[in-house]
Amino acid sequence: MKVRREVLGDAHVDRAMAASDDFTEDFQELVTRYTWGEVWTREGLDRRTRSCVTLTALIASGRMEGLAAHVRAALRNGLTPAEIKEVLMQTAVYCGVPAADAAFSVARTVIQEETRPRP
């Protein structure tokens, strides 16, 4: 749970856990244990690289519903907006222009929200 919160942020994790019920709580536990406790904690790739891979996998599989959270995570993991743009440019060639176009739309919104000066 610690890594899940560090990567995705408390607000995202709190929403996911609050939405959990008897039907989905086992799934939330599985996601926490395997995704965040096994894969994201492995040696061999740093979090920045894992974020690049995750963005690409989400775009390639058309999972735009998870992309915003992982663009935020990529920023939290130290990727710059310019580096995120380069990941998305790479996906245009290997995943298709329509997928990259949708990803750019999502990423632009998130980056604008996350880099906007706070009052």
Assess the beta-strand content as a share of residues: under 5%
What is the overall silhouette?
Answer: globular
Question: Per CATH, which architecture of the largest domain?
Answer: Up-down Bundle
What is the name of the CATH topology of the largest domain?
AhpD-like
Low-confidence stretches: none
Q: What portion of residues is helical?
A: over 70%
Cα end-to-end separation:
30 Å
Reading the helices and strands in chain order gives HHHHHHH
CATH superfamily of the largest domain, by name, is AhpD-like
Rg, nearest Å: 15 Å
Number of domains: 2
Which sheet architecture does the biggest sheet show? none
DSSP strand tally: 0
Mean pLDDT: 95
Task: Write structural notes for this entry.
Residues 26-108 form the Carboxymuconolactone decarboxylase-like domain. This is 4-carboxymuconolactone decarboxylase. InterPro entries: 4CMD/NDH-1_regulator, AhpD-like, CMD-like, Decarb_PcaC. With 119 residues, the protein is an all-alpha fold. It has two domains: 1-42, no CATH class; 46-119, Up-down Bundle (AhpD-like), CATH 1.20.1290. 75% of the residues lie in helices and 0% in strands. The chain contains seven helices and no strands. α4 (47-60) runs antiparallel to α5. The mean pLDDT is 95.
